[in-house]
Each structure stands twice: as C-alpha cells, then as structure tokens.
Amino acid sequence: xxxxxxxxxxxxxxxxxxxxxxxxxxxxxxxxxxxxxxxxxxxxxxxxxxxxxxxxxxxxxxxxxxxxxxxxxxxxxxxxxxxxxxxxxxxxxxxxxxxxxxxxxxxxxxxxxxxxxxxxxxxxxxxxxxxxxxxxxxxxxxxxxxxxxxxxxxxxxxxxxxxxxxxxxxxxxxxxxxxxxxxxxxxxxxxxxxxxxxxxxxxxxxxxxxxxxxxxxxxxxxxxxxxxxxxxxxxxxxxxxxxxxxxxxxxxxxxxxxxxxxxxxxxxxxxxxxxxxxxxxxxxxxxxxxxxxxxxxxxxxxxxxxxxxxxxxxxxxxxxxxxxxxxxxxxxxxxxxxxxxxxxxxxxxxxxxxxxxxxxxxxxxxxxxxxxxxxxxxxxxxxxxxxxxxxxxxxxxxxxxxxxxxxxxxxxxxxxxxxxxxxxxxxxxxxxxxxxxxxxxxxxxxxxxxxxxxxxxxxxxxxxxxxxxxxxxxxxxxxxxxxxxxxxxxxxxxxxxxxxxxxxxxxxxxxxxxxxxxxxxxxxxxxxxxxxxxxxxxxxxxxxxxxxxxxxxxxxxxxxxxxxxxxxxxxxxxxxxxxxxxxxxxxxxxxxxxxxxxxxxxxxxxxxxxxxxxxxxxxxxxxxxxxxxxxxxxxxxxxxxxxxxxxxxxxxxxxxxxxx
Length: 660
Hints:
Helix content is 20%, strand content 23%. By secondary structure, the protein is of the alpha+beta class.
C-alpha cells in the first residue's frame, strides 16, 4: 500500500490496486474519512509521498508494467519495467515548481534588503532557549490543503530518468530519495544490488548516493537515512554525501536476555493467530481453531528445546490438512558445516582402490556447471584409479570423501593411473566443486534427450523442466526453442519443484501454424517461428508439486497431449508474506488456493492423475531403461503416425504481367 503521512498528519497517501491490476495513488482525509483517487488508473502509479512543505505530492508511474501484473504467472518474467517520477501541485493557487528560471542577475541591493529584513526579524524573535519560547509542532507545520477539482491537470513530470524504481521517499523539502533495481535483477532474484539516488527539486538535479544496497528508510524529519548493505546496517545524514562504511551500526556485540519458555508460549499463540488471520479458507477446512489450540496447549509444558517446539507446531498444524504449511527456523544452535569438495564422478571399488566408474561432463563455459575432471589439461578417464590426494595414499578401506574436506573451490593434486599398483601414474591438478547436483542433473537430462532422440529416430524433442520458476523458465527457453526443427516433443516435469503458474510454457506449446514465408536465398520460415507444431506428451510423477501440479493440469486443460507417469504430489496452494516469529522462526499459512472454472476445488490434496499410468521401475532403470519416457515417446510417435505434420508445397510465383 506504500502509505505515507502528510506533514500535518491530516492526510494519508497510499496505493490501491485497481481491478485492472494497476496501482493508483489515493489520498485519504483523516478528518472526513474520505478517499480520493489522484491518478487516472491507466498507468501503474506507486510510492506516493508528500513533500515536507505540504505543497506537493510525489509518485512514480509506469506505462510498460502491464505484462508483469500477473505476479504468479510465468508470462510476467523478464519484461523490463520503467517508472517515471511525477509531482502533484496540491493547490490551485500554487505555481508550478518547474517554471522556467529567470536568467537575469539579482542586484546587490535586493540581497541587502533581504539581509536587513532577516536581521530585524531575528531581533524580534525570542531565543528558543529563553522561557516561554517553546514551539509546538502545530506551530511549525502549516495545514495541508488539497484542491481535488482539476488535480489531474496539476500533475507534472519531474526531470528524472525513467528507471525500474522500487521505492521512493521524500526527505527535506524538495528532496527525494529513489531506489532503483538495475537491469538484470528480476523478481526471481534477490535485491542486493540496488542503487539509491537523490533528487533536488530546486537544482533539478539527480545524483547517485549509494549502490549495492538492499533496502533503505528515512527518519520522519527526513534528516537521517537507515540503509542495509550486505549483512550490515548504516545510518547517514541525508544532506551530505554518503561514504559507504560510515555510520555502521555495531550490532555484533548486542546481547538480549530471553526467557525461552515465555517466548515459546507467546509463539504458540502467535502461530494459531497467523492461521486465523491468513489461511485462505475462513472455515479452516472445518477445523475449530480455538478447540485445536486448547487441545495441544498441554504439550507446550513438555517442550525442552526449540526443535521440540517446531515438532509441536508441525503436529498441531497438520490438523488443517493442507500442503505448504511449513515450520522452520528459530533460535537454535548453529552447527558449522564442513564443506567437502567433489570431483563430479561415480566410483567403484576394484583391487583395493577407488576407480572412476563415470565422469560427468559439465558445461565448463558455465560457472554453475563446472566439471573438475573434464577441464582442459586434466584428462582423467573412466577406468582410471584414484591413487592419492595431495600426496596421501587412497585405499578402498578409506572414505574417499575424507580426503576432500574443506577442498571445495581449492586446488587439489590427484595421482591417477590405469593400474592399481601405481604403474604409469600421473599427477593432475583439479579444483573440486561444492555440489555435484547440477552435473548429475545435466547428465540425466542429456541421457534422456539422447534416449528420446534414438527411440524416435530423431523426430522428437525432449525438454526437462525442473521447476516452474527460474530453472524451468531457463530450461524451456534453452531446450524447447533449440528443437523447433523436431516433429513432436516429450515434456518431462518429473520432480518439478514448482514456483509460478507456467502459462508462458503452455502458451508456446499450443501455438498453431498460421502461415509460411519464402525468401530468395535460404530456407523459408513460418509464423510463428518458435513452435513445435506436432503432437506432445508430458511425463509426471509423485514428486512434482505446486507449480509442478498446475503445469500438467494446464497441459491437459489446453488439450496439448496425454499425461504419462504417476499422479502428482497434490499441493496447489500458495504462501507469501508472513510476520516472523519473535526468535526468527517462521510458520506459513496458505493464503491462496486453486479452483477450476468448473467451480470445483481441485489438485490440492488430490494431485493430477496421468492419462497413462506407468511405474518408474527401479530394475529397468538399473538396466539403463526409463519406462515412463519410453511410453511417452511411444504415444507421441503413434499420434504423429495418425496425424503427420502437413507438408506445404510452395505455390507458383505470381505473374502480374501475364495476359488474360
């Protein structure tokens, strides 16, 4: 809502989302309890803020935010948004703050007269330190009056470049602080590289104040600024240049005495209150919250550790019978992890040694998928023995991982060779990675893609979607459009971790062929270009949930193709924005839930059943087969056989000069 007070505390400005999903700036009168919409609703207006002089109201507005208003929809990803900054002149009798400035020099006499008048006034004004000179706040602040008639014509654009501003606050009179999210930082990523600007209305000048911060706020008088940079907090004056590092708050040595049992009791009640206030169903799935709170209250007396409290929360909140009700964190001892370096390989034990059974390829041009053993010059091969690490002999009776403690992202020397006795051994230098998950996932994707290609005779694309957030968006954009030359596709969403509503993926998969284009040289093309026009199938399993539940539901609803595999997890509710518990712990209360256009509650606690149910057979998997993938390929190939892609024949070129 971005609320903000006027200097006289008689008005509140705030943002309200309209039915068109755009924001409008409103002003509310405390005296009359009446709200008035200030902006027209045809742009996304936000961050209303009164000037300290009470004459102006500032706000930002965007006319390109439209495609991003579906905050849950994947189709809102990666659309650039810019906001401009505007000022509202609140009274009809006030001049524009942007009127052209006179270029004439002011004469010295005018200055002398002003100085004399100021001196005379000072002589008549009692010293603030003298008795009876106390000044009340009401004496210092003039009433803020607003003429709403024709106010839209008193909205002016300030000379501030349009950027993706995330917040804006007014400091001293005529001074604005505006926080920008630089290009490349979207809603999927953390905002820890924001840039703060200061705008001076008198000078009509914008200057950069800070960069690399994550948040900021201003004191009520506008003289001080609180901001966060990394894990640290700082306080600085708003009028002076800000030097990063100055004004750091020394919080490391702060200590607070707490009574754990008193906190646990407060949090117990707080958790039930959060469910009461945020849970999407006002009837709480039929659960009597007060009775449930009383039922579990006696167990609180037996809690002896913060982990016990989380266990109690999990048990009692399970009565709501809903997914995405998470319990985590709290004031508990932290165990420092020991990072173990990994080589991106599988081992087998032979001849009393560890032998490389599989070496995983990476994308060594991609920092997130660096494979230690496939780097240039390393040349470790499948079948080599791992003989020593940093000079320490490695035997099969040792834990191989014990040789790589604290070695992630550090240089390690390996001795490897084709013989267990060390003959023909060689030394190589590698840099182990902290996690192999990305390498193993890439190998699984590539194995499946090659398998689908082989089973279909090169006719089908294979696209894996690990989630419906950043990973799924990236994978779809990379793998789907790289295979639009295929005749059909298998979309694999097994183990999908969810995220957004993947309407973007569905929209692209159902795009029909509209027309053809021909060019003088090279191959012709179509509209749209980015589409696989042939049949498709989607593979699901019991580990796909949330957005991974919705994706196959949408796939079926859109009539794109059959679902193959197992029923999905069944957790289609949403969570966002909850108060933190007093000791830093957290509990969620699902506050958005899915229902169908048919007027039915669906998916949650039910999942999405496949059209063709196929078990993932571990024995077949160990033998190098994937029954779910094989069946999906088979179904698409059958559909392709029944409904082959049309073969378009180029018509004869027109001859507009041929005689009739």
